[in-house]
Amino acid sequence: MAGVTLRDVALTVGVSAKTVSNVVNGTGWVSDEVRDRVKEAIRELGYRPNFAARQLRHGRTGLLALAVPDLREPYFAELAASFVGTAQKRGRTVLINQTGADRDIERALIEGEGLPSIDALVLSPLALTAEDLGARRSRTPLVLLGEQAAVLLDESIVHLGMPNVTASRAAVEHLIAQGRRRIAAIGIQNSGPNASSSLRALGYREALAGAGIAVDPALLREVVHFSRAEGTRSVEEMLGARVEVDALFCFNDSLAFGALHALAVNGIRVPEDVAVVGFDDIDEGRYTVPTLTTVGPGPEVIADHVFDLIDRLEEQPIGRHVLPHELVIRESA
User: Fold this and answer.
1) pLDDT > 70 in the chain, percent
2) How many CA atoms lie within 13 A of 143 on its CB side?
3) What are the structural domain ranges in the chain?
4) Which residues pair with 145 in a beta bridge?
């Protein structure tokens, strides 16, 4: 069927053109039943949305840039994949950049150096400073991810923060509710008060305090990186020092994967002997043995929220926005 229009799809389904537009663009609220009918009509009629025309009408390029520190890290790799998938659903394209936590690269990106005309830059900074943001000249909308971004915020900069304290507190409270009392915190770092590790440690301490459990310094395990290797090392060191432990709260899922490996190698049953909870809800946690209990938001949720925020930028200033958390209970706890 040649020349199929959005209105043709609407007439076929018996809904408004606006409803079809919402389904195509991934905006607004549409019931699952209507969404499925619209998608089926689009397939049957062979409708092809003209995203280029839409972008011209709204003065947009349809192109966004995402910059993360290290694509080798499972969390950032999955975040990038989630951004690409979400962009495809919404008729957009994402350019992926890797900063290596290099301040010069992060500064160049926020000024738009080396980038084509884009609708927004989404950056997870590690080295950027308040001075860098204050000196920024580019007018391209900027969305900052993570707690390292909380260095300079005004209404022209969108900051999407993680619920580090509340999510961590919920994770540890879950372990306490299961009768665990010797809960190790894996992920302690000597970082500033706004760093993710510091905020997750705060949530851990708040949960223990709420249950009347004293913090044992032997259960506070420092790491250099949030990686599998550091998770394995932390558990091996505790076992070697004969530290009594019945649960692990790992500050990200990669640390938890390493911890699970060390426990398995040493014949320690999970969760019978030691329960394990991670943070970030990346997809790999569904396939570990046992499957990993973790706390989100996960990368897909973050990507959806970022695109929603970018769509709202033209309507109103947004500033800081904190995502809700979700405890994902699986076999490890």
Assistant:
1) 90
2) 27
3) 1-42, 59-162+299-324, 164-296
4) 160
**What are phi and psi for residue 250, nearest 5 degrees?**
-100, 135
Q: Please tell me whether residue 178 adopts helix, strand or coil conformation.
A: coil
Q: How confident is the model at residue 232 (pLDDT cuts 50, 70, 90)?
A: very high
Look at strands 294-296 and 326-328 and give their pairing.
antiparallel
> How far is residue 283's CA from residue 173's CA, in Å, rounded to a whole number?
23
- Rounded Cα distance between 196 and 145, Å, is 11
Question: In which residue are the tokens 């690409």 written?
Answer: 84
Across 100-104, 269-273, 321-325, least confident range:
321-325
How buried is residue 144: exposed, middle or buried, by Cβ count under 10 Å (0-12/13-18/19+)? buried
pLDDT tens digit string along 48-95? 765 545 554 455 688 999 999 999 999 999 999 999 999 998 889 999
- pLDDT over 90 at 157, yes or no: no
d(CA 123, CA 261): 32
CB 187 within 8 A of CB 223: yes
Superfamily of domain 1-42: lambda repressor-like DNA-binding domains (1.10.260.40)
Class (C level, CATH) for 59-162+299-324 = alpha beta
- Angle formed by the axes of helices 6-13 and 32-45, nearest 10°: 120
Q: Is the domain defined by 164-296 classed in CATH 3.40.1440.60?
A: no
Nearest to 167 by CA among 251, 228, 225: 251
Backbone angles phi, psi at 224, to 5 degrees: -85, -45
Per-residue DSSP letters for 48-90? ---HHHHHHHHT--SEEEEEES-TTSHHHHHHHHHHHHHHHHT
* Residue appearing with tokens 């014949």: 267
